[in-house]
Amino acid sequence: MTSPFKNRIGDAWIGDGDVTENINPSDLSDVVGLYARADAAQAADAIAAARAAFPSWSATTGQMRGDILERAAAEILARREELGELLAREEGKTLPEAMGEVARAGQIFRFFAAEAVRAAGEVVPSVRPGVSVEVTREPLGVIGLITPWNFPIAIPAWKIAPALAYGNCVVFKPAELVPGCAWALTEILVRAGLPAGVLNLVMGRGSVVGAAMLESPEVDAISFTGSVGTGRQVAERCVATMKKVQLEMGGKNPLIVLDDADLPAAVEAAVNGAFFSTGQRCTASSRLIVTEGIHDRFVAAVTARLERLTVGHALRKGTDIGPVVSQDQLEQDRRYIAIGQDEGARLAWGGGLVECDTKGFFLQPALFTETTNAMRINREEIFGPVASVVRVRDYEEALAAANDTAFGLAAGICTTSLKHASHFKRNAQAGMVMVNLPTAGVDYHVPFGGRKASSYGPREQGAYAANSTPPSRPPTSTPEPFPRQRRARPAPAPRDAWGRRTISPTLLP
Ligand code: ADP
Fold first, then answer.
1. Which end of the chain is flanked by fewer CB atoms within 10 Å, N or C?
2. Residue 20 burial (10 A CB sphere; 0-12, 13-18, 19+)
C-alpha cells in the first residue's frame, strides 16, 4: 500500500495510523491519494508546536517573513498547471477554474509578502502635555484556521498568508474532502523556509480536530469559513474560551436584472455567477430577480445558454461545469430541486443527473422560474448549480426582494441606469455589491466579507486582514536568529495547457 500524505506537526511529517481516501468526484474509481487523519492528541501537539514557535517567529523581521511568503508565491505560480490539476481532481471544478484559483493563491502570498514589511503604527499627540502616544499592532499568537472544500487553495491562502505575514503561528485544518491542496500548500511553505512549528497541518474531522482547536486555551483566534450551522457552533465555542473569531458563512446572493439591462451581458453575469464552479461558491448568484419587461427574454436567453453548456469530467477539455463535490452534496442539491417543485416553482431547465463515461456526481444546472422570494429554495443556501428567477414589477420591488434574506454576502445589479446602479450600491444590504458583473468574483486586495448572517468579525483579504491578525512592530531587541533559510528550487516558466493565459477573476470566489 502506498504511504499516506502526512500531517505536519512541529518539524515532522506525522501519521501512519488512520487514513482517508481522497476520491475524484469526476471519476469515483480514481483515488487522488491517501491522507493521514489526525486525532485530538495530534491536534494538541500541533497547537503546542505553534505555541513554542511563536516567541521567535513573532520577533522576526517583516523582511524575513516576506521573503518566505514570496518564495512560496513564486512556486505556487510556477506550478499553477500541476496544482490546478490536483485541485480539479479532488474538488471537481474545471481545469481553467482550478488554475485560476491556484494563480489567485500565488497572488495572495505575493501581496502579503509585501505587506509583511509595511507594518506601520501611529504616533499621536497625547491629550496630556509633554506626552506622545504610540499605537502599534502586535501579533496575536496561535491562529486556528478551519477551511471549507469549495476553494481548497485560495481560502487557505487568504487565511495563512496574513497570519504568517503579521507574525502569528498557524494550525491549519482543511476540509475533509480536499486534503490534497492543503498538503501541497503546506509542503511548499515548509520548503520555502518556515521554521518548525510556525505552520502546522492537521487534516481530519471537524468534530475531532476542529473541535480540539476550538476547545484549546492555547489557540488565540479562529478564522473559519463554512456553513452557517457550523459557524454558529464555532462562534459559541470561541466565546466560551474567549478566543477572537472571524466567520465567513453562507449567502443567498441576489442578482437584479432590470428592463434596461444589456441582455447578453446580464445573461453572462447570471450564468457565470449561478452555475460556474458548479454553483459551489458562497458568492453564487442563486436568486435572479428580474423585472417583468425583460423577464421572458432573459429566461429564454439563459435557458438557451444553459443548453450549450457541457457538464462533465473536470479535467476534460470542453467541460464547462464539473461534478458536484460529493454524494452528500449531490443529494442536498437534488433534495432542494424536489422541494422547489413541491413548492410550485417551474423547473424551466435541467436538474437531472448527467451520464458520463466515468462514474461521478454530475448534475445538470437547474433553473427555476415562477418562484417567490418566500420559497425555501430562495431562502436557504443550496450550494449547488441551482438558481431561481423571481419576477418583480420594478426596481423598488427588486431591491426589497434582494434585501429580504437572512444573508448579506454579495449582491449584483444589471442595468444601464446610473440612477439605479448608484442607488443599489448604497442600499443593497450586502458586503460586496457588483454592477453589470456576476456576484461571484472578487479582488484580493480589498476586503472580503458580508453583512447579516453571512459573516461575523473582521473582514478578510487585503490590508484589512490586519484587523484580524494584526501586524507586528519591529522587534526592540535582537531575538534568537533562525538557521539560514534553504533556497527554493528555481521555478520553471509557467505554462497554460488550455492556452488561457488570463484567468478571469469572475471564476474566483
Ligand atoms: P460544509 O457543509 O460546506 O462541509 P462545514 O461548515 O460543515 O461546511 O465545514 C467547514 C469546515 O468546518 C470543515 O473544515 C469542517 O471539517 C469543519 N467543521 C465541521 N464541523 C465542525 C465542528 N463541530 N467544529 C469545528 N470544525 C468543524
1. N
2. middle
85 is catalytic: no
Residue nearest to atom 13 of ligand 1 (CA): 175
387 in the same domain as 328: yes
Give the mean pLDDT of 445-453. Answer: 94
Convert the pLDDT of each residue in 9-24 to its tens digit.
999 999 878 999 999 9
- Main-chain phi, psi angles of 191, to 5 degrees: -70, -25
Mean pLDDT taken over the chain: 93
| Closest-CA residue to 74 (of 94, 116, 102) | 102
Let me know if 248 is a catalytic residue: yes
Domain membership flag for residue 483? no
Question: What is the whole-number distance in angstroms between the Cα of residue 234 and the centre of ligand 1?
Answer: 9
Q: How many whole angstroms from 226 Cα to the centroid of ligand 1?
A: 6
* 97 has pLDDT over 80: yes
Domain tally, the chain: 2
The stretch 206-215 carries a mean pLDDT of 98
Task: State the pLDDT at residue 476.
Answer: 39
pLDDT reading at 81 higher than 60: yes
In a domain, 506, yes or no: no
Strand order in 366-371's β-sheet? Answer: 346-349, 366-371, 386-392, 287-291, 254-257, 410-414, 432-435
- Does a structural domain hold residue 507? no
Q: Are residues 315 and 334 in the same domain?
A: yes
Indicate whether 120 pLDDT > 90. no
Helix axes 62-78, 95-115, angle to 10 degrees: 160
Any domain includes 504: no
Domain co-membership, 245 together with 258: no
Task: Residue 378: give its domain's CATH number.
Answer: 3.40.309.10
Q: Which residue has the cell 436584472?
A: 257
pLDDT at 311: 98
Q: Are residues 243 and 285 in the same domain?
A: no
Identify whether the C-beta of residue 323 lies closer than 8 Å to the C-beta of residue 314.
yes
Let me know whether 166 and 265 are in one domain.
no
